[in-house]
Amino acid sequence: xxxxxxxxxxxxxxxxxxxxxxxxxxxxxxxxxxxxxxxxxxxxxxxxxxxxxxxxxxxxxxxxxxxxxxxxxxxxxxxxxxxxxxxxxxxxxxxxxxxxxxxxxxxxxxxxxxxxxxxxxxxxxxxxxxxxxxxxxxxxxxxxxxxxxxxxxxxxxxxxxxxxxxxxxxxxxxxxxxxx
Length: 180
Ligand SMILES: Cc1cc2nc3c(=O)[nH]c(=O)nc-3n(C[C@H](O)[C@H](O)[C@H](O)COP(=O)(O)O)c2cc1C
What we know:
Elements: E1 5-10, H1 18-30, E2 34-37, H2 47-53, H3 57-68, E3 71-76, H4 85-94, E4 106-112, H5 120-130, E5 136-137, E6 144-145, H6 161-177
Parallel strand pairs: 1-2, 1-3, 3-4, 4-5, 4-6
The chain binds flavin mononucleotide.
Flavin mononucleotide (FMN) binds near residues 12, 18 and 77.
């Protein structure tokens, strides 16, 4: 059987984002896998832009990547108790593409945030935002990585065995959900 393909969506764009690191750790624990991270640096959704130029190529590429992936992992930071605008913008744009690439897609969501709750509220809102797209979102184990800037070593490995074990369990469930 060929290797499963896993697509990661990080709600934080910055290069050293702990949400990116968490996704990479998830991909490592999903192993073996062919992992790619999507580029969410998209234009802001604007109906005038859509009317004038149609779906931007970067958005169509993201929708195609989601559609073609065996499974998708999403990690959101918490910004003022919600998921990031970057992530919501990407979800809104993809919802404007033809078809629904999320339909029945195996998806795992997680969050990495500075606060003590690890972005729990942001993740809960993100789950609600995904409902219209009808993916197969795993219910758990839930990963809310608190104080995320202190949770990775220099190689980007999770420091806490507790988080690593939960993430491993989540990835094994995602693997099974994707039929591997
Ligand atoms: C605008 C803004 C709002 C934030 N609000 C929250 C918040 O409500 N709860 C929280 O835990 N952290 C909050 N933070 C801290 C982020 O969770 C933290 O920067 C997070 O680790 C960013 O993820 P990253 O490392 O992937 O970039 C906020 C940060 C910013 C920039």
